[in-house]
Design a protein that fits this description.
The complex is a heterodimer of chains A (479) and B (100).
Chain A (H helix, E strand, L loop, with lengths): L2 H20 L6 H17 L16 H23 L5 H28 L3 E2 L2 E2 L6 H28 L12 H21 L4 H22 L7 H23 L2 H24 L4 H10 L20 H9 L3 E6 L1 H5 L3 H13 L3 E6 L9 H8 L7 E3 H4 L8 E5 L8 H4 L18 E6 L19 E5 L2 H14 L1
Helix pairs in contact in A: 1-2, 1-9, 4-5, 4-7, 4-8, 5-6, 5-7, 5-8, 6-7, 8-9, 11-17, 13-17
Chain B lengths: L2 H26 L8 H11 L3 H10 L4 H29 L7
The chains are: A alpha/beta (479), B mainly alpha (100).
Chain lengths: 479, 100
């Protein structure tokens, strides 16, 4: 590799690092994404073969035609997906792109491995190949992790689409999965030292299939609500597989980019689990431990549910000084983001201070609610994170809970026997009055009674969130 | 330096890059607000689309029909990952606006 190209590659790596760095603040996030994309484009233009020759200056063969066609097809698929996906379906989209990346990483490693194991004859002469362990191990790793990520992401995608959402478990599942994993690792170990010949190819293909199966078996037992954590983890897996591919085909940009994604993805996974107050092992293997016990019966909730009408709520809101809105996934399902923003604008015109309190896991993936509200043109400085807003909740006149449930349940704070005990919540019950907008009295995703509904300062506004909000907006406008 | 020594020297250097990248990855996102977790996940997702490079390199050297077919699939997958990932992240982030 010529030193100019090596130097440019350092620049490309810096662009990736800066890109991720900028992504961590809302002011610079969009720029960060573009910086990383620019790095990718530069990397593509100076892409070189391991012997240092720029790939675009080689003699044009049929393979290059295939490269161009394949890239264009991928571009079209990606663009259609990216611009047609609804913001509520964002987790599925990320799962799909991640799965494709994982699949590509596995295929690249496989091709390299098979080429090494079964060298093609050129003009009747078989090229001598002796892949060293230092090259074989990354190839096996990329194949294993990449295909696992591919299959796992596919299952995660289906689960988010609502297919077999429930955890699927059977007795001995842990044991069986462990056995498969051992078999895979055993095959990898054997292949490390026997990486050539027909047997190696057969063992390799067997390993590939087992890894695909393991990806499915790993994700099937995990419930639909935990899929974002799984996707984040698989995202970092794909990153590591790409880095391993970089080792195998000697491309430093791939190593840096893949490793960055691998480690930042791992940290992101841990941050998400922390926001839910669950250890990562509980998310991944939790379904095995739970013996089907939703035994947390609501014992002795004091108080009664007190309904309220929209015009009364409107009166409360217009006379308030400070209003906090707690949105949940129910709001997104009802497509009520725009009505919420309209209500917030109307109140703002009347001098009411309106803020949105965002729980870290509101929506279907962490940060999802911010995207949904941004889509409805709610400025991001009006969105306040849970830790920032909780200490000020007792100075709030009206707290409007729209389609959120478990994230405002005081049982997480008060009742030790509750399954969500210890989960950080938005302390809506500290507000002077609380209005909960809800379709019916059904329990939330976790199936737990919400103590908030029975508090003295809580009123329930029943009905479809969008219809209720429109009624509220009309009533506020009329006042 | 002998070729063999040089080879292992390069491998160690590459390992060096790998280890440092791990720490950089941890460091750059350690202070990210949960507000941006979704775009961040989608943005890093796009960055591992760099596997497109790998796909292009193996397909350029493909010598059998099997290698051409598999390499072609890898290029399509990688290309969808990288282009789609950056586009969808940009679409999300352009909506994040401050109060006028």
């Amino acid at each position: 590799m010529s030193s100019t190209i090596a130097l440019i590659l350092i620049g490309v790596s810096v662009l990736f690092i800066l890109g991720i760095k900028f992504l961590s603040s809302p002011k610079t996030a969009r720029k960060g994404n573009l910086v990383a994309a620019a790095g990718m484009l530069i990397g593509l233009l100076i892409l070189s073969k391991p012997d240092g020759a720029n790939i675009w200056t080689q003699g044009w063969t049929f393979n290059y035609t295939l490269i161009v066609i394949g890239t264009i097809i991928g571009l079209i698929i990606g663009a259609i997906g990216a611009y047609s996906v609804k913001m509520t379906a964002m987790p599925q989209m990320v799962a799909m792109f991640n799965g494709l990346g994982g699949g590509a990483a596995a295929l690249v490693a496989s091709l390299e491995f098979i080429k090494g194991a079964n060298p093609p004859e050129i003009a009747g002469v078989t090229l001598p190949q002796d892949p060293s362990a230092a090259i074989t191990i990354p190839m096996l790793f990329a194949t294993l992790i990449g295909s696992l990520s591919f299959a796992g992401s596919f299952i995660a995608y289906l689960k988010l689409e609502g297919k077999f959402e429930k955890p699927h478990t059977f007795p001995g599942q842990n044991f069986l999965n462990g056995l498969i994993l051992l078999l895979i690792l055993g095959l990898c170990g054997w292949l490390t030292f026997n990486a050539t010949g027909h047997n190696a190819v057969v063992a390799f293909i067997f390993m590939f299939c087992l890894a695909l199966f393991f990806g499915i078996a790993m994700v099937m037992p995990i419930g639909g609500a935990d899929m974002p954590v799984v996707i984040s983890l698989l995202n970092s897996f794909t990153g590591l597989a790409v880095a391993a591919d970089g080792f195998a085909i000697n491309n430093n940009a791939m190593i840096v980019a893949g490793t960055l994604v691998g480690s930042s993805g791992t940290l992101l996974t841990l941050l998400m689990c922390k926001a839910m107050n669950r250890p990562v092992t509980n998310v991944l293997f939790g379904a095995f431990g739970s013996s089907g016990g939703s035994a947390a019966t609501a014992t002795g909730i004091a108080g009664t549910v007190k309904p309220i009408q929209a015009d009364e709520v409107a009166l409360l809101l217009t006379y308030a000084q400070r209003v906090v809105i707690v949105p949940g996934y129910g709001m997104a399902v009802a497509q009520a983001q725009h009505s919420v923003r309209e209500l917030s604008d109307e109140l703002g015109k009347r001098g009411v201070e309106v803020q949105f309190a965002i729980h870290p896991v509101a929506g279907r993936m962490p940060g999802h609610m911010n995207v949904l509200l941004a889509e409805a043109n709610v400025p991001y400085d009006q969105l306040i994170e849970m830790e920032a807003i909780n200490p000020t909740m007792d100075r709030v006149d009206v707290c409007l809970v729209i389609g959120a449930n478990d994230v405002v349940n005081p049982a997480a704070r008060e009742e030790k026997s509750s399954p969500i005990y210890g989960m950080p919540i938005i302390e809506a019950d500290h507000a002077k009055s609380v209005i909960v907008m809800k379709r019916s009295m059904a329990a939330g995703f976790a199936g737990i009674e919400n103590h908030l509904f029975y508090k003295d300062n809580t009123r329930m506004l029943f009905g479809d969130a969008k219809a209720s909000l429109n009624a509220l907006v009309a009533a506020v406008k009329a006042s | 330096m002998e070729t063999e020594n040089l080879q292992s020297y390069i491998q160690v250097l590459v390992l060096f890059i790998f280890v440092l990248s791990i720490f950089v990855g941890f460091e750059v996102i350690s202070k990210v607000p949960s507000m941006l977790h979704t775009p961040l996940m989608s943005g890093t997702n796009a960055i591992h689309g760099i596997i497109l490079f790998g796909g292009i390199l193996v397909l350029a050297d493909a010598q059998t029909h099997l290698a051409q077919v598999l390499g072609f699939i890898a290029v399509v997958f990688g290309s969808a990952n990288v282009f789609g990932g950056f586009m969808v992240t940009d679409r999300m982030l352009q909506m994040f606006k401050k109060k006028k």
